[in-house]
Specification:
Two copies of one chain form a homodimer.
Chain A lengths: L1 H8 L12 H14 L11 E5 L2 E10 L5 E2 L2 E2 H15 L2 E13 L4 H18 L2 E10 L7 E11 L14 E4 L5 H11 L15 H10 L5 E6 L4 H13 L3 E4 L7 H10 L12 E5 L4 H9 L8 E6 L7 E4 L5 E3 L13
Parallel strand pairs in A: 5-6, 10-13
Antiparallel strand pairs in A: 2-7, 3-4, 5-7, 8-11, 8-12, 9-11, 10-12, 13-14
Protein name (chains A, B): Hydrogenase expression/formation protein HypE
Organism (chains A, B): Streptomyces doebereineriae
Pfam families (chains A, B): AIRS, AIRS_C
Amino acid sequence: MQTATESFLDQQIVLDHGTGARLSRELVAFMVGVLGDVYIGEMEDSAMLPVPAGNIAMTTDSFVVDPPFFGNGDIGKIAVCGTVNDLAVVGAEPRYLTLAMILETGFPIRRLHQALVSLRETAIEAGVKIVAGDTKVVGPGEADGIFLNTTGIGVFHRPPKRMTDVRPGDKIVLSGPIGNHTVHLLSVREGLGFEKHVLSDCAPLNGLIDSVNEAVAEDAVRSMRDVTRGGLSAVLHEYSAALGHAVRIEEEALPIDFETRMASDMLGINPINAANEGCLALFVEPDAVEAVLKALRTHPYGRKATVIGEITDRPEKAVEMVGKDGRVSEIEELQGAELPRLC
Amino acid sequence: MQTATESFLDQQIVLDHGTGARLSRELVAFMVGVLGDVYIGEMEDSAMLPVPAGNIAMTTDSFVVDPPFFGNGDIGKIAVCGTVNDLAVVGAEPRYLTLAMILETGFPIRRLHQALVSLRETAIEAGVKIVAGDTKVVGPGEADGIFLNTTGIGVFHRPPKRMTDVRPGDKIVLSGPIGNHTVHLLSVREGLGFEKHVLSDCAPLNGLIDSVNEAVAEDAVRSMRDVTRGGLSAVLHEYSAALGHAVRIEEEALPIDFETRMASDMLGINPINAANEGCLALFVEPDAVEAVLKALRTHPYGRKATVIGEITDRPEKAVEMVGKDGRVSEIEELQGAELPRLC
């Protein structure tokens, strides 16, 4: 048996793996086997899934990570984390994911296996099931190895959290350091050697959010965002625009690991604009900040949680930073992050 | 205003349209504007959607159609039809779709606009809303113009329909001719000139299915499939395998348009293996066949509906065809359809 599997793993994706005939079917059977108990799809055109009455949360994300395999993770892990986190931050319990792949002819099946194993392990950690899938294959040079899409459904056990629930005076808490994912991936991509010292923060954050919800009152955390594409800057600009209030953060309070800061300086990037895959921004009612920090810090993904700023009462769309010297500067919204394909 | 829009339409996709900063936001605003009332997403990380208690249907599909724009449709239309049809065939009412795009740098925004307009019109026809989206941009040569993913949710008003509900003696009905989508796309792709005479059948089939459900008893139609990748052959093999009974069809009964047959002969393809985007296979309780045919034929997408065969009581995984001369031959499952990227 070992031999049969090994010889399959040594093969590469061909166009016929995506045409709906026998080879397609065999590839799907292989993938379903690797996913094991995490896959609960039926062999029908749609999955049929029980949900409670009320609102569900739904979100979609495609992943074009370059490189798709890196030091402490890969596109399979990111594809679960990204979608799980988008469901969790609106206050939903992530429950079901679909998984759609676009594979380039010649992609090694061993690599596909690796991504699926990592996707399975992350889905187990996050407590989500894969309920339906799709695989398309394109010719050489028509994609870059592997692209994934996960679309997720979550159910609500408490009221949804919305940006517009945030009020002036609310504190902004980050669950962990920023910039690590970007530095790690750029370092792997460019062969810079930082990747051994700075790991991606990629993680499913629903467990961390559950810890907070169990520790504090329902409306203590008004709203949450995972800080991904566009970085902290994009999140803060989004809130400032939605609320119509200026946002102020403290430069000294920003959690940036020493090696990450060094590497960022060398790479010429600003961690404020860098994509992360396991960092949560929480907008917290002031009296609840200590309790929220305590709850975050007891969880492995929140050990370095810290307050970085607040929503001001100034009615203006602006994000400003108080520097180490006390001077206030404006953080402008970037036209583009100039750093594509990190998620 | 005309000028501003026109000048935007003349632009091309750049990497910064996918990095989460200002250009990303502007592109999203443009797309949301084009989708109009069809888009009901909130500016949160997940959409929040009401559903009734019970089962929902969920399905995902990526679209890598080549060419993405063809005579009577495009990738936007197909992206709605494919997912709507997968929900409708299990007996669900298609309700919500997510839309994820992977765009290649240099893709013309005018083409993106065209795909979105067509997606919007098809969503209106099918009665579904777009509830969340995602846009990624990759470099030149890292994708082929535009790839879409739609993931859909449907709700059930009656029991789900499953393959395993089909019984020996049930008749197999096709809602319309096979092969047209494949011939149309291949003709456009290769510049053969057939595309004016043979149009793609691409259509959302939930209205057609509703017509049937209104006309006949709940269990008259035991199961349905839309005949897409792998063609009729793949569908029949799938049912034969799931049921453990041989399937028999009549060659003379197969609905194949005259021009399609000619073109297929010239192209060396067999319409039985050809992908379609608006053809339904129904597995029907024998006494209900006339009523089902009548209901199908009153709908524009079912005018050419016809019985093509039946599920035999022979306990064997096989698909056989009775030829025009009365001889029975086996239709083998293809290894691959050799015709990639038709959906």
